[in-house]
Amino acid sequence: MYKQTRSIVLASSSPRRKAFLERYRLEFKVITSSLEEKIKEGELPVEYASRTAREKAESVVSKCSKEEIIISADTIVVFGNKILGKPRSSSDSFAMLKQ
Prior knowledge:
The protein is an alpha/beta fold. Helices cover about 35% and strands about 15% of the residues. The chain has helices at about 15-25, 45-60, 90-99; strands at about 10, 30, 70, 80, 80-85. The strands form 2 sheets. The chain has a 3-stranded parallel beta sheet with strand order 2-1-3, with helices on one face. A two-stranded antiparallel ribbon has the order 4-5.
């Protein structure tokens, strides 16, 4: 059995990410990022997801000790080469799904 020796910080309020860590019985605390997620002009989807995950971790690092492990991620939906973003309404969700 794995013995956890370092504290884990989840830089996300995502219920799916919390459930994943709980499934493996890892002890962790959640520190959410206040990062405003904006796509940069000409940024590819993989670049955007990598950058936002890194920036989320960087935004909480000052609230963590040097011994803590920060876990951060970003999930995006891409159609073609376009990032769809988070729907603002149910009609927006429907329009995205119709694509």
